[in-house]
Predict the structure.
Amino acid sequence: MKIIGSYPNLRLRRLRKSTWIRDLVSESNISHKDLILPIFIREGKNKVESIKLMPGVKRYSVDKLSNILKEVERYKIPMVALFPFTPNYKKDEFGTEALNPNNLICKAIKFIKKKFPKIGVMCDVALDPYTTHGHDGVIIKKKIDNDETIKVLVKQALLYAKKGCDIIAPSDMMDGRIGVIRKALDEENFKDVNILSYAVKYASNFYGPFRDAVGSKSKLKSDKKTYQMDFRNSSEALREVGLDIKEGADMVMVKPGLIYLDIINKIKRNYNVPVLAYQVSGEYSMIKNAIEKKILNNDAILESVNSFKRAGACAIVTYFAIDIAKIIKNQLK
Ligand code: PBG
């Protein structure tokens, strides 16, 4: 890029001299409308419990979801993403509970659609919260079996769509599942249900606190490297996205977020598709811990999520969604 002009005619500080001019020339912005809040759901009644590795984040029994949904409504967060904490006795090798029409996710969708019909609902399609081994798919002959897993995922996606889920979000990283799910949704007349593919999901060390939150951490004895992406790769992300768009994904997710900004930007420059970012649990906990210890201040949250917008993401899944909305409104002390 050519720089036109030079000092002293050109003084870039002139565009930074006051808040209003900085606002006028800002190249990206974060709004409450760009945010998706993940919510953890547990069994029982009247339960709101803390999650050890994620300070400030809680698990709610379905009847207590209003506590958090009222905040979502008040701060006009457009959508929530639901994740279940399944009790051990409901887990098995095949993740059968994923297909129980009365499981935690189904109950939560029903509750939200009845009491908070304006809030969008997005559901993860993967088996890890339901399996005794903590993997996203079914294991056959000691391997995560791609095609057998897809058969279950399709049923899981249809079940959530039937219950009223707005956006189906396969996060399992099996090959070919988007096409099969799209076809099944269309055949069952769910043509308007969106698919947000976790097209680029890395085998990351930053999911630890989430796995603790859904109760799969202690179950998982190995890593997920045979299905999630290798963190050394970047071109491969474009192949993943290309395939998923062809198969019918409406939007794609990059996950984790902060340490993969290059990937978000690369996808944005190569494809005409909405790209979302997931600021995952490990990123959240690091920043949150630093704020609690007064190493960072609250504006660090805003700076971290704005980076996704600058990189090219249209929306961000973040555990900070309510905090961000408060910061924007100057309500977070
Ligand atoms: C499960 C799933 C994971 C996350 C979202 N969906 C964990 C994993 O793949 O092990 C991680 C989210 C986070 O860390 O905040 N398929």
